[in-house]
Amino acid sequence: MSEELFDVVDAKDRVIGQQPRGEVHRLGLMHRAIHLLVFNTTGELFLQKRSMKKDCFPGTWDSSVSGHVDADETYDACALREPREEIGLALAAVPERLFKVDACEETGQEFCWVYRLEHEGPFNLDPEEISEGDWFSTEKINDWMTQSPHEFAPAFTLIWRRLNKNG
Q1: Which of 59, 68, 124, 136 gives the lowest tally of CB atoms within 10 Å of its CB?
Q2: Separation between Cα atoms, residue 10 and residue 125, nearest integer Å
Q3: Nearest to 107 by CA among 53, 161, 33, 50
Q4: Domain spans of the chain?
Q5: Could you tell me which of 78, 35, 58 has the C-alpha nearest to residue 128?
Q6: Class for the domain spanning 5-165
Q7: What is the pLDDT of residues 99-149, one digit of tens each?
Q8: Pairing relation of β-strands 15-20 and 5-9?
């Protein structure tokens, strides 16, 4: 299987070229990703624990779904593809867009659109991507993040803090 190809973007999130995944990460080039936050009807958030096979932040807890936008793919198309690939969730429509995070150190130089969805599961987790997943209350995540911030992927920590600051 050939290496994934990503759009490389400038500081205003405009495509300026394309590079293989490994080069984008090795060189710290700006690129694109999505994060999907899946809440159930009781307000709990489904978190995934990243597989130890992942090249970035293995074994950390992350958004329900997170993934790179492929070359020539839109954020919204990625927001439909990634849930199917990671947690076996086929969506009929693009989830609600919450906010965009600019590329920074915490995101690994990714511009990230954050989406929200309500769903009860169950999910079919891809073992190449995710070692486990579970539902957590806002209070549990806040306490856990305060006590053990290293257990979370930095992009999720940034997203979670922004989400809770905005209400």
Answers
A1: 124
A2: 33
A3: 33
A4: 5-165
A5: 58
A6: alpha beta
A7: 999 999 999 999 999 999 999 999 999 999 999 999 999 999 999 999 999
A8: antiparallel
